[in-house]
Records
---
Amino acid sequence: MTDGYAVRAEGLRKRYGDKLALDGFDLAVREGTVHGLLGPNGAGKTTAVRILATLLRLDGGRATVAGLDVARQPREVRARIGLTGQYAAVDEVLTGRQNLEMFGRLFHLGGKRARLRAAELLERFDLTEAADKGVGKYSGGMRRRLDLAASMILAPAVLYLDEPTTGLDPRGRGEVWEAVRTLVAGGTTVLLTTQYLEEADRLAARVTVIDQGRAIADDTPDGLKSRVGGDRIEVVVAERSDVPRAVQVVARVADGEPEVQETELRVHAPVTDRVAALTEVARTLQDDGVRVEDIGLRRPSLDDVFLRLTGHRTDGADRTDPAELSRKREAAV
Amino acid sequence: MSAVDPGVADTRGRTHGRVYWLLADCWNIVRRGLTAYQRQPVMIAWQLGFPILSVLLYGYVFGSAMRVPGDGDYRDFLMPGMFVMTMAFGFINTATIVVYDSTKGVIDRFRSMPMASSAVVAGRGVTDLIVACAELAIMMLTAFAMGWRPDGGWGFLAAFGLLLWLRFALIWIGVWLGLIVPNPEAAGGLFAVAFPLTMISSIFVAPGLMPDWLGHVAAWNPVSSTAAATRELFGTSVGGGDSWVEQHALLMAGVWPVVLTAIFLPLAVRRFQKLSG
């Protein structure tokens, strides 16, 4: 029935007033994988997830989750999904255990099974020690883990993670990534929205890039990065006369033709053996007596991917997704 | 993966039927609300302390200076008014919790679950009514300690019922506002709106003592009808006016909440449905 896809969306449309948040959005997520949905603020990521989670009605197109139509069988879909939004949707006043037991009862597990399931999940998300403390005292990472645990009460077929690490420190981010990996090892399909290429790279087997409500690329993270050219070495020299020499040196280690930005005296080129290339270029230029203002390695950012795919930068300011806007209003809270 | 059959919600739903699950979901939301109070003694203290303080403060401070038309005791006039005021301010509690839940994604989580979504709102309402009962009981005991002696019996129960009836109607204003107000801080600002709305009424001062035009506004304020009706039912009827609406306080104390519910329940439901765009 699901022909190997946990989530399928075809030509999704969503309109807010005279703005199209989704404009013929397509998505196909294979069962048992992490699929990244990558895009800047306002691209329509949150709108897409909210439609797939039955929280928003769609204006056009068709979407199925676990083979069920989100518009026609919302109740059935809800019994098979978990959702973790941008803000940990747990009750701050209750303890972690009380939260999970409450959600368990609301998932109709019954009191006893809700208690067992809560204990099990607390253990699995490494929250047993903090289980009986109020969530208000949890760190950001712990809160997000509790939120994940709450989404996992029914062991859903599909889990949506809407920017699960936004606003977390590196440690909290690592904790969440670890938890997501464990979930997928257990067979859950994850749809992960993110603004960070690095996050998609670490977690996702496949990535859909979304811009202005449309999928503009669907590829593996490596495939995406190779379109942008992977890592780049970048050298800025002090004297204009040194630019040709810098180009020569960089070309020796580079995978492609070095590019030159004359005005900034900047030379950059794609590289694979990153550190070797960097030391080689630095040493050679020093031996030649070239004065180097700056030298370094740059990983391709979402910005680079975007620039390459769309020809414009990721400044979402002028086309903000209303669903995300309303969440931003919440971020201020 | 520790296995819990993902279809579990469906099968149990079938054996029990929709009404059973609506009630069960509702009860679980109520439990959540009450556990929150239990975990936050400060919240209880504030919730119950404020009414006690109000009774003491207004009773002793105003009580010594205020007068009522005729030769009634101002405290007999004031106490039912205080009860009404607490019920009236209750919509701010409702709004605050709803705005918190909707901005923190808790309502979204509920809506993404295979539970009855109407239970989210219904459970909130039941919780608020339970809390309102506790508030009224505490205030009445305080008033009693200060020498307030209402009639017992059916009249007393009817008065209690009318107070809850008003509170019930205000739940929908609270839910509606909670879904509109952008953040919990702004919900605190609702006090600024609620305060004058309760002051321009017969809660503290008989409308007959106000400037004519203001007196009319105050008499037609829905909370005035509940205040006058409960004064009557408590057997401490003082300071009533002779305009039509003041003469028919009992009737209007029943009617006003119906009107408010008829307006704000659909608004709240529409706002809730609008969450799904």
---
Amino acid sequence: MSNKSVTRRGVLKSGAVTSAGLALPTIFTASSAAAYTNEPTGGSVTLGFNVPQTGPYAEEGNDELLAQQLAVEHLNGEGDGGCLNTFTSKALKGNGILGKKVEFVTGDTQTKSDAARASAKSMIEKDGAIMINGGSSSGVAVAVQGLCQEAGVIFMAGLTHANDTTGKDKKANGFRHFFNAYMSGAALAPVLAKEMGTDRRAYHLTADYNWGWTQEESIVASTEAMGWETVNTVKTPLASTDFSSYIAPVLNSGADVLVLNHYGGNMVNSLTNAIQFGLLDKVVNGKDFKIVVPLYSELMAAGAGENIKGVLGSMNWNWQLQDEGTKAFVKSFGEKYGKPPSNSAQTCYAQVLLYADACERAGTFNPCGVVEALEGFEFDGLGNGPTLYRADDHQCFKDVLVVRGNMNPTNAYDTLEIVEITPRAQVEYAPDHPMFAGGELGKCNPGA
Amino acid sequence: MLGLNKKDTSLLIVVAILTLLAPFILNPFPSDSAMAQFNAGYPDLMQRFVIFGIFAIGFNILFGLTGYLSFGHAAFLGVGSYSAVWMFKLLSYNVIPAIALSVVVAGLFSVLIGYISLRRSGIYFSILTLAFAQMSFALAYSVLSNPKFNLTNGETGLQVYADDPQILQGANAPDLPHLFGLPMRATYTMDVGAWSFDFNAGYYLCAVIMMVVFYLAIRIFRSPFGMMLRAVKSNQQRMNYTGLNSKPYTLAAFVISGMYAGLAGGLMAAMDPLAGAERMQWTASGEVVLMTILGGTGTLIGPVLGAGFIKYFENIFSKINDNVLHSWFAFLPDGLEDAVVFIIHPFIGKGWHLTLGILFMLVVIYLPGGLVEGGQRLLNWIRRKSVGGDDTREGKTEPAE
């Protein structure tokens, strides 16, 4: 005996409620009609510049920001046009991209993966950015690259030197203009052999994180290939500021070369400690003791001051290069900001131009069209000579510079002198090279 | 309702309404206007509001009730994130197992750290927790990410790769975190005139979870167990002299708040499948302390407000750059415009820390009870203004305690 009665009205009511409940999730999946994430509909297109504005690489980030603003000016037809005049692809007309005025938003990565992803997400979700450019750390680059792949926008990496960015962490929506640790090793080895001989004994101090390891691996491999012996490799905690306790054992190890796989403030401190211990004045195994810093930047050179005199390292680009692209860029950057650009600034500038050019050639902002236009793209006129964006791993191939701390700098900006411009062929490698193995490029993701 | 008194019920209802209608409340400006810069209603930031709300609610159970100031709570957040991402890597992109495991692992981890750290109180306890958190950070950043035993993937952060096992991942399940097929990233955008509002699946999952744990926190605050914790705060020595062993209570509070942190970490990974070591750094631990103090220590709603306040500054103020300023003040004569921009410049963009610091000082000096005290004072002031009216008391906006 129950008093439950089924009425027509009751059935209809509960039926309506149930179906509304079941249908609710579909309002989330049925997204707008756009063909891809953040399709620009108005008269402008928004680019996102995600660089460190606070934290250890803030100075580098701000330099990148200046260069990117300059690139936007040139794209919109303001200023002297910079590298648009020297770029071999003539698709860009100085009227924005595909006729749309270029606007930009900025974010602070704080050199932390989490913060970088948060700021990239807010640029994509809130400001409608269609590509993310810049950054100054490999960890951040890999993290943001993954995000852009998921969200369906293009990522151009900025300063990132670890092999992993276009190795095991490569993504279809991401491209890297910067060189990498393998290339540093390949470019440095012949110069080291020439300057120091082929029977040296090397001691490595390495920053204890991903980038440090890949660089150590690369340098060890390329120096051992030419006959050097690796005495020891010591990992130093990233937060160290005093390296004295790591330098002292070097003297007793029988090594005659010290390789510092450090970057930024780490490198400035470890190099300073090494000089204080008088390493460079020592004679070991009948040879003069030498120090090598595989990855240089203008910022580090300025920070280390006197200490870098004569120390060898490698670089992606330098403002003292004499090709047309470099001269045009250095001229317009110098006229606007009163100083020469750093190599990370040049990277970010070139990437904005390359992205814009790829959109023009593809005739669309759709990430898949852009990826197709950039894959296997060969060009010249943006500095570093003829350049290739390889389709297999989205790594850029161009000449690499070997530089030395200038013995007699004449002003604050020529702290480094170019020793050799290593031709592209010498730093090329197969896409399935063991140091880059694992990981898949996947398919381009247009989002939406 | 639900075993709560009238006041708490109305507080819960207010919180529920605020979180469910957040997409409207946080987007008050038309999307094309200059003020749109201040809109906070986009999915990522809304998710952060509630996730850090959960983190701060949990922290407040320990700090607000027992007075034990933990400076290492970010370790549990990080551990939660790592567990969640490992679930994505091993099982599938479904968020349920990931969130469940993150709570469990963070709970176990907090038993371990709590058991040791709670042997001391006061500043020694804070330093112990800080030491453990920095140890966890160092482990995650380099030690546990060497090529031979890669648990955390170091600086890059733990991510899901295409060649991970994902044994339960269905053939046509979405290739990103989802709840039984509903992607966390899915967003429905509603355009009303010049306004646009985003309804994000991930946000609503977090919001529902936050309401559940907020309810739990109310129950803990009002329970005899909560009373014991308050007794620890007011005079632990006297409590011990009466023959009560306070340690199980403090450890329980520590573990509960560790599990809250783990839950927040798991949700963060569920919204964005990457776990970075910086999540464990001492700055992250300090942030939750700031959130709690800014909002109002020991109050129910305070930590949530504080979390929202700090995250708003971090994400909105840090993105205002000089170009934006120039466009705001373009109506002024050139020289004056530059002068105004020059004055404001240090407080925006990378200077957001400075603005936040000044506001934090003001709050601590003039409103020791945090934002909640500010709200109470405002309410009292309004009440005094409307003298003579009938009983104008509206229990629902009155903060707990």
